[in-house]
Amino acid sequence: MAGMSRAIRNFAAASRRTLTAASGPALPKEAAAAGARVRAAAPGRMGRDQEDGRRVQWVFLGCPGVGKGTYASRLSQLLGVPHIATGDLVRDALATPGPFSNKLAEIVNHGKLVSDEIIINLLSRRLEEGEEKGELGFILDGFPRTIGQAVS
């Protein structure tokens, strides 16, 4: 665990240097390589490239209880980007009064799964809000969960 935390801290530091060094002096080879890996691993939302300024775009996937949220939260703090969990988006939508909230509450109260369409709608809105605020990226926790979500 300590080794993983150290690796994340080192990678995050290299990523921050890569993100802020657009007009600065040349980066060490390791930091430049780390930045290239970030861009190659996450080319951007819906196929966008790094030209849009949102360069940190990670997705954490895995079985329940493996630590997706823990590591996503830690990495989010280190990189200075928001940690977006679909469960939080659903809870926030439920807390906002209105017809959409009522429809969502009915689904959740009956123990049904929230549809891909609703999840993608919530996530799209959140990503658009972040882009308008000028957020430099995002870390998704637990999305996509289905092939349909991944394709959308």
Give a quick precis of the structure.
The protein has about 150 residues and is mainly alpha-helical. About 60% of the residues lie in helices and about 10% in strands. It holds the Pfam family ADK.
Write up this protein.
With 152 residues, the chain is mainly alpha-helical. It has two domains: 41 residues, no CATH class; 108 residues, 3-Layer(aba) Sandwich (Rossmann fold).
Question: Helix and strand layout, with pairings?
Answer:
Blueprint: H1 2-20, H2 29-41, E1 56-60, H3 68-79, E2 83-85, H4 86-95, H5 99-109, H6 116-133, E3 137-141, H7 147-151
Parallel strand pairs: 1-3, 2-3
Helix pairs in contact: 1-2, 4-5, 4-6
Enzyme class: transferase
Family: Belongs to the adenylate kinase family.
Protein name: adenylate kinase
H and E string: HHEHEHHHEH
> What is the highest CATH level, the class of the largest domain?
Alpha Beta
Question: Main beta sheet, described?
Answer: 3 strands, parallel
Regions with pLDDT < 50 over 5+ consecutive residues?
Answer: 17-50
Number of strands: 3
Kindly identify the CATH topology of the largest domain: Rossmann fold
Q: How large, in whole angstroms, is the Cα Rg?
A: 17 Å
Proportion of strand residues: 5-15%
Give the integer mean of the pLDDT values.
Answer: 71
Helix content: 55-70%
Strand ordering within the main sheet: 1-3-2
Q: Give the N-to-C terminal Cα separation.
A: 34 Å
Number of helices: 7
Number of domains: 2
Overall form: globular
- CATH level-four homologous superfamily name of the largest domain: P-loop containing nucleotide triphosphate hydrolases
| Overall CATH architecture of the largest domain | 3-Layer(aba) Sandwich
Structural class label: mainly alpha
